[in-house]
Write a structure and sequence with these properties.
This protein has 6 helices and 11 strands. Helix 1 packs across helix 4. The longest helix has 11 residues.
Length: 200
């Protein structure tokens, strides 16, 4: 199967709904999008990235109301971060809804979620009608992809159907990942948003 580069969000959304994987631009790098409800699509992402099974996939949403599709509870600490940093490059851990794929959850049953600020990513999620994965489109441990051409060069393209062209992205750190359930909140990965900004 040959990967194609294009600009059709409708086509990309259809592929995701049908259980495929799409590469697309986010605010930090190109990501790999699949429906959080398609187990085989999630497995394909692990194969594409040669990603260790114990590393869960983060989830992207396009509107705050979509949080109810992945968690039953938004703690007050998380609400404060949402008000300050969403939409944007902050990934927040929540208690995952029962029944979600284990590839989306850490051993403590938490799911990492971000409300993306990138217009193409948000439109793709809206068109798909479901939360999607947003892990970076590169082999595990390799530098993130900043363009469709880098996506093609980085991954097993025979497993990837469509790359949504958002041009060349500026160099950027990854999203910051934070667990708000501790006191103070635990920054699991510092990225665009600095630790001192989270804790201030």
């Amino acid at each position: 199967m040959t990967s194609l580069i294009g600009t059709s969000i409708k086509k990309a959304a259809r592929i995701i709904r049908d259980g495929g994987v799409v590469a697309f631009p986010t605010e930090t790098s190109y990501g790999l999008g699949a429906s959080i409800y398609h187990s085989e699509a999630l497995k394909t992402i692990y194969d594409l990235k040669e990603r260790p099974e114990e590393k869960p996939l983060l989830v992207l949403i396009s509107r705050l109301d979509d949080l109810k599709k992945v968690t039953e509870r938004i703690p007050d600490e998380a609400r404060a971060m949402i008000e300050r940093f969403w939409p944007g490059p902050l990934t927040i851990l929540f208690d995952a809804l029962p029944g979600l794929d284990n590839r989306l959850k850490n051993p403590q049953g938490k799911i990492a979620v971000r409300l993306t600020s990138h217009p193409i990513a948000r439109e793709l999620i809206e068109a798909s009608g479901i939360p999607i994965t947003g892990t970076s489109a590169n082999p595990s441990g390799a530098p993130p992809a900043r363009s469709p051409q880098e996506v093609l060069g980085n991954l097993k393209s025979n497993l990837l159907v469509y790359i949504l062209d958002g041009g060349v992205l500026p160099l950027s750190p990854p999203s910051t990942i934070v667990d708000p359930s501790t006191s103070p909140p635990t920054v699991l990965r510092e990225g665009v948003i600095k630790t001192e900004d989270i804790l201030s």
